[in-house]
Amino acid sequence: MVKVLFVCLGNICRSPMAEAVLRHKVSEQGLSQEISIDSAGTGDWHVGKVPHEGTRRILDQNGIGYEGIAARLVDSDDFDKFDYIVCMDKSNGSNVRKLSGGEDAELLFFMDLLPEEELREVPDPYFTGNFEQVYNLMDAGCNVLLNNIIREKL
Question: Which residues form a coiled coil (predicted)?
Fold first, then answer.
């Protein structure tokens, strides 16, 4: 089983959106038995909470379920559990690296999946309110990530 973890700050906007979008795409491809997806945050403010209302609204508008998704903290064990740890921005990447014990942690930054985009970090809609922009990035980036997983791991 290939395991993917998306990481953002509070784990209620960007990373659960990515988790839901990739789960949906994996299910559509009939790969739910081969690919597992989770999300986590580097801050503990929202642990145990469902995704943000804006995230739920945009997922509902696009027919994407988010059942069972609840905020949790990323921890050092995640480095052993996941094949891909995908961070939404550099600050989260830095915090995740501290958990791993250093710079050797293999992380992927979400926007590296979309090199043609001018943005180099996924904007946080908790602060910007632009959930549609983030959804569009998640949709495009998850297509690339899924294709990479299929090509490299399956």
Answer: none
